[in-house]
Sequence to fold (300 residues):
Amino acid sequence: MRYVRFFVLLALVAPAASAAEIAVLKSADSPAWRPAIDSLRRSAAAHTVTEYDLRGDRAEADRVITSLKGKAAVLVTVGPLAAQAAKEVAPEIPQVFCMVQDPARLGLVGTPNVTGVAFSIPIKNQLAAFRLVNPRGVKIGVVYNDANAGRLVEEGQKAAPVVRLSIVARPVASEKEVPEALRALLKGAEAVDALWIPPDPILLGDESRRYLLAETLKTGKPVYSFSATLVAEGALVSNGPDLASIGDEAGDLVNRIAGGEKGKIEILIPRAELVVNKKIADKLKIEIPADALRAANKVL
Fold:
């Protein structure tokens, strides 16, 4: 009997599994992604989480990822640049991606040691929500980088007629080309009723993001987006994945991997949310239908 008690005591006082080193690799330091990262930190609070800003630079990404070999137990990659670099430079380290619009195109789906959280809802649903909030905004402009959001924009152009919208697209190769592309959409023969900001890192840096929001407001045009953070900063509406939900799901994957789970782990799906900025609507003299306000998860 004494032996039984001894072994029970050992089980009770045995130390918990030690905290793992989790590296969060941010393609860029975008405030729009902050809710997801903060949620991830809460979900994975048992581990040591360190953030690295790759500054949109592939060379910097390679340097940082190489330095983490043999140190990090799990890499959480935020955005396409980080996800692709991690897959290529450190395939031996378990990886959890998020904020990647098209993971299949980057070879992240079905890749050993790689799982993640989806960053999309059906684009037709997103456009329908924009139309619900602003019924008069039927011509939507979008600035985007083809490598980052090309497939999403293509899907949007195919889906737009179904909800009686049209999309005018202006591709850019770099952040420097954003102002000229935006001017072409806001003025002249191709002037649009609203601007759509997709989840493209080129558009989410501080300078580009603030420029897009400020210039559209000056011309009396609303901004549609995927992020509640952008709505808080001045966009009219967002319909997209709940960023806190993305962080929760990523944290769950981190905990499972750090806890020793092996084999293929499925890609998780976050919640969607509709957020409306009533103050911006009033400033732009846009009357939001009562049905849209009732459907919104949040009204600012």
Observations:
- The chain has 13 helices and twelve strands.
- The two ends are 65 Å apart (CA to CA).
- The first helix runs from residue 2 to 13.
